[in-house]
Design goal:
CATH architecture of the largest domain: 3-Layer(aba) Sandwich
Radius of gyration: 23 Å
Number of domains: 2
CATH topology of the largest domain: Aldehyde Dehydrogenase, Chain A, domain 1
Largest sheet: 7 strands, mixed
CATH superfamily of the largest domain: Aldehyde Dehydrogenase, Chain A, domain 1
CATH class of the largest domain: Alpha Beta
Shape: globular
Bound molecules: NADP nicotinamide-adenine-dinucleotide phosphate
């Protein structure tokens, strides 16, 4: 039996009660996790607080070797980890393998980035009121970080938090998604069992009564790094008290297809951006605004590209679209499609499901206030909307509570450079989908999509270190 276990610091705790996790495609039991209690939270924080005194003193070369060791082991076991992702969340194997590769890169990148991060000196005689000193600031670890992660990238998003946090000298308490406990546990185990590990620097807890609230309200963590939905992000913000809070939340990503764009290329990329991981990506392409003169041609091309995507068994190497995470997610998508149809929208392609596997679905004749357009749909559903010109599309794209990533397909340089300034989002992509993310980039949204940036350099600077100002007077 593949059991995720509690880590209270480096110590693995034995427990009696486990919750089973089933594969979303075939309902086989694939893992289980122990129910945690608020006393586990207290113990994990106690260990983390004490460990943070050691982590901050540990030499950087040790922490860099630590991450490199984990990345190497993950590389050796990459197929096992890809299967774990596919087991727990039903991500098709081709993309599960891709996530493992990205995770290895995220960990290596965190190690290499930390070597380049340092403080800065400045001249205190710049102001008439100043005097000659030696003044500088240095970056110091925050101490204890709480990391909370979602189900849709159950390995790489854990790495995006624990790798930069640990390499910058902190202790971490991790609370992964209940849908994918074994992915997180197995990665954490590599960190904890590494010969370079700092003892007790990493704890792993799971859900249980009062656990989330105890984790968030405790005064021990100096930072909470949360990736997940807007409602939970709101709850955390209300309960956290005085501490740094980094929020990587949802979105309803959009693109504009200009009449100058290469339509075939755009359609091919848009089919990927809308339907990869069954649309369960925070930057999944949900709204496609198309110049009215090329709308018909683009619609046909997109439907054609979508028809080529293999739907079904995620363990099959040819499958592009596997199951959604659970019944609730499928039901929500079906209700939103039905409501939109009642108000006049039409299904251009797809629209049905078999079990938890939903077909790639293209909606047309939609209104902008329909849920499938203005809310985060988090399902393989994309809406096509004709627009008279760029300005018209821009108004609709920015008229959203979210602002994670937007894109534009155009061969007009002036329109492209205007879009970079005009689009109200944390990321803008030209001539590709808004679903494009490189792990080295600063990544995070505007508006309700969150606060702060991930990407190792940015997470280390924004979340996991603080600036300490030093003045030496002679
Ligand atoms: P979720 O329901 O918000 O859960 C995320 C994490 O928060 C899970 O570990 C969950 O634990 C935990 N949680 C639930 N209630 C909590 C509370 N009251 N206090 C503290 N933690 C709590 O999100 P999800 O369904 O797993 O993931 C999908 C969402 O994440 C989408 O909205 C997506 O856009 C967003 N996302 C954003 C990014 C980004 O980088 N911007 C990346 C990926 C996903 P349990 O699993 O035990 O409930």
């Amino acid at each position: 039996m593949n059991r995720a276990k509690i880590f209270l610091g480096s110590e693995c705790k034995s427990t009696q009660n486990y919750i089973e996790v089933k594969n979303p495609f075939n309902s086989n039991v694939v893992s289980s996790y122990p129910i945690c209690t608020t006393s586990d939270v207290e113990m994990a924080y106690l260990k983390a607080k004490s460990a943070s005194k050691e982590t901050k003193k540990s030499p950087l070369h040790q922490r860099v070797s630590w991450l490199e060791d984990v990345a190497n082991k993950l590389e050796e076991e990459s197929e096992k980890f890809a299967k774990l992702i596919c087991d727990e969340v039903g991500k098709p194997m081709i993309f599960a393998r891709g996530e493992v590769n990205r995770c290895i890169e995220t960990i290596r990148l965190s190690a290499h980035t930390m070597i380049t991060i340092s403080g800065e000196s400045f001249d205190t005689t710049a102001m008439p009121s100043g005097k000659k000193t030696l003044a500088f600031f240095k970056r110091v670890p925050v101490g204890v970080a709480l990391a909370i992660t979602p189900f849709n990238f159950p390995l790489n998003l854990v790495a995006h938090k624990i790798a930069p946090a640990l390499v910058s000298g902190n202790a971490v308490v991790l609370k992964p998604s209940s849908a994918a406990p074994l992915c997180a546990y197995s990665l954490a185990k590599l960190f904890i069992e590494s010969p370079y590990a700092v003892k007790d620097a990493l704890s792993v807890l799971y859900s249980g009564e009062g656990v989330n609230d105890a984790l968030v309200t405790s005064k021990t963590p100096r930072v909470i790094s949360f990736t997940g939905s807007v409602p939970v992000g709101n709850l955390i913000t209300k309960r956290a008290g005085i501490k740094k809070i980094a929020l990587e939340l949802g979105g309803n990503a959009a693109t504009f297809i200009d009449k100058s764009a290469n339509l075939k290329d755009a359609a091919k990329k848009c089919a990927i951006g809308a339907f990869v991981n069954s649309g369960q990506v925070c930057i999944s392409l949900q709204r496609i605004y198309v110049h009215v003169e090329v709308y018909d041609e683009f619609s046909k091309l997109l439907a054609d590209e979508s028809s080529k995507l293999v739907v079904g068994n995620p363990y099959d190497d040819k499958t592009f679209i596997g199951p959604m995470i659970d019944e609730d997610a499928v039901d929500k998508a079906k209700i939103w499609i039905a409501n939109a149809k009642q108000e006049g929208a039409k299904v251009l392609f797809g629209g049905s499901n078999e079990g938890l596997v939903m077909e790639p679905t293209i909606m047309v004749d939609v209104k902008e206030d329909m849920n499938i357009v203005c809310q985060e749909v988090f399902a393989p559903i994309v809406s096509l909307i004709a627009k008279n010109d760029y300005e018209d599309a821009l108004k609709s794209m920015n008229d959203s509570d979210f602002g994670l990533q937007y894109s534009i397909f155009t061969n007009n340089l002036a329109t492209a450079s205007k879009a970079i300034d005009d689009l109200d989002a944390g990321g803008v992509v030209i001539n590709d989908i808004p679903t494009l993310r490189f792990d080295i980039q600063p990544y995070g949204g505007f508006k309700q999509s969150g606060i702060g940036k991930e990407g190792p350099k940015f997470a280390i600077e924004d979340d996991y270190t603080e600036v300490k100002s030093v003045v030496i007077c002679s």
